[in-house]
Amino acid sequence: DDHHLPRIPYLGAEALEFNTDGNPNTAVGYAALNSNLTAGGSTAVGYDALLFNGLVGHAFPFGWYNNAVGAGALLNNVDGYSNNAFGNHALFFNVNGVANTAIGYYTLWYNDSDALGLANGNTAVGATALFNNVDGSDNTAVGDSTGRNLITGFNNTYIGDFVGALAGDESDTIRIGDVSNGNGAGSLECYIGGIFNNFQPVGGKVVVVTLDLANDHLGWDFGP
User: Fold this and answer.
1) d(CA 132, CA 59)
2) At 217, is the pLDDT very low, low, confident or very high (cuts 50, 70, 90)?
3) What is the pLDDT averaged over residues 138-157?
4) SS3 for the chain, per residue?
5) Model confidence band, residue 5 (pLDDT cutoffs 50, 70, 90)
6) CA nearest neighbour of 176 among 209, 136, 213, 147
7) How many CB atoms lie within 10 A of CB 166?
8) Whole-model pTM?
9) In the chain, what is the greatest distance between 2 CA atoms, to the nearest angstrom?
């Protein structure tokens, strides 16, 4: 009775062509997961998606638990695992990078292109976001073309289209709607909730926003 045998669904010429022991995997599209040998738990949808994943047949977890949707998404991945790429050529050059999430056209394109396995834990949402990142890790970029100058920087947070376009490679930096966004002027107004109800050192209509240096909390819990 083969009712309980593992299922390896595939649809498309050369999809999962060389798979030997990798299971469970799902491949839809020409050459999707084509060279995978033993890595499992992956989903590839699109032309050449995860083409070289698990090529060397390493044991768990190498090459496992990757999801690629879009032509060329995670195409060069070999040993990287727990990556998610949604968009044409997202995470295209990633070889050994781990736990990256790329959503958008050409997002995280050069990530781990040197195959050193240093570019881990990056999250990029938006077309070409973190496009040039090679060895940077733990960066978060949300917005079209956001953080495109990062190459080796780490622990950055960028929010807004083109944010960081005028900045060089950097680390431990937060940029939200800065002057490098699309019009070169930055955001012209700013509204942030959750501050007004805290005690402030100046009464009336004047508010001085204070910062607790111990935990980055804005405002006072018990007054100055």
Assistant:
1) 30
2) confident
3) 96
4) CCCCCCCCCEECCCCCCCCCCCCCEEEECCCCCCCCCCCCCEEEECCCCCCCCCCCCCCCCCCCCCEEECCCCCCCCCCCCCCEEECCCCCCCCCCCCCCEEECCCCCCCCCCCCCCCCCCCEEECCCCCCCCCCCCCCEEECCCCCCCCCCCCCCEEECCCCCCCCCCCCCCEEECCCCCCCCCCCCCCCCCCCCCCECCCCCCCCCCCEECCCCEECECCCC
5) very low
6) 147
7) 14
8) 0.83
9) 79
Q: Say how far apart CA 117 and CA 97 lie, in whole Å.
A: 5
User: pLDDT for 81-130, tens place per residue?
Assistant: 999 999 999 999 999 999 999 999 999 999 999 999 999 999 999 999 99
pLDDT of residue 204: 59
